[in-house]
Amino acid sequence: MLHIDVGLQMRDFTFAASTEVPSGVTVVVGPSGAGKSTLLRIIAGLLRPDSGSIVLDGRVLSDHRTFVPPYQRDIGLVFQEYALFPHLSVGRNVAYGLRARNVPARERGARVQAALDRLEVGSLANEHVGELSGGQRQRVALARALVIEPKALLLDEPLSALDPQTRGRVRSELASILSDIHIPTLLVTHDEADRAAFPQRVLLIEHGRLISGAQHG
Q1: C-alpha angle with apex 32: 62 to 71, nearest 5 degrees?
Q2: Predicted confidence (pLDDT) per residue in 136-172, tens digit
Q3: Neighbours of 166 (CB within 10 A)
Q4: Per-residue pLDDT averaged across 115-126, rounded?
């Protein structure tokens, strides 16, 4: 379970959110500039809130005394443009978080290959990311987020970089992948089709405020 109760003064508004995120996918929606990505950045530790707390599985990540840095939070993050390193191979991209955590080379290699195989891109380990299709890049970015065995997963507009023809297919693939991942997962989107693909839980943010959390059957 991910507990969020935070406030942060932004340039244009005061951001405030208080909610609990259970295992499974929760879609975060709202107008452009409302604070959807801000929520993810606060949870990931890329922004430090002015007040409140973040607690993941009973571990305090942020409060008035504690601020755990991003690389120690056990949280996987997939950016809008995937943020893959173009000069590195697929395998080295996925291994990045494990190297930062000083995972031994042999274990690191086995975990990277397992993560790539899980997402059906194991044969691409030695390819450079510039040679990949949009769907393949998305899978590699997700493998990099999952290989650290995170306790929560944050996806910031993960399909927006894809062309319309590819987006529908990759959306279905992503829904299938995430259905097997039993950790709190926040997926930011502005696309109604994305929301329809993950209908169970929805958070609405408007002008920096968490307005409502809806749960559907």
Answers
A1: 30
A2: 888 899 899 999 999 999 999 888 877 777 788 878 8
A3: 15
A4: 91
**Pick from 149, 172, 201: which residue ends a domain?**
149
CA separation for the pair 59, 94 (Å, rounded): 26
Counted domains in the chain: 2
Looking at the structure, tell me whether residues 69 and 97 fall in a common domain: no
Digit-coded pLDDT (tens) for 170-216: 788 888 888 888 899 999 988 888 888 887 789 999 999 998 665 54
Q: Give CA–CA dist 201/63, Å, rounded.
A: 26
The two structure tokens encoding residue 213: 């959390």
CA gap 190, 115 in Å, rounded:
28
Phi/psi for 48 (5° steps) reads: -100, 120
Tell me, yes or no, whether 10 and 20 share the same domain.
yes
DSSP per-residue codes, 101-126: TT--HHHHHHHHHHHHHHTT-GGGTT
Label the pairing between strands 75-78 and 152-156. Answer: parallel
Q: Which candidate, 204, 177, 199, 175, places its Cα nearest to that of 188?
A: 204
The reply to whether 163 and 131 lie within a common domain is no
195 φ/ψ angles, rounded to the nearest 5 degrees:
-60, -40
Angle between helices 164-178 and 134-146 (to 10 degrees): 30
Comparing 68 with 173, the larger pLDDT belongs to 68
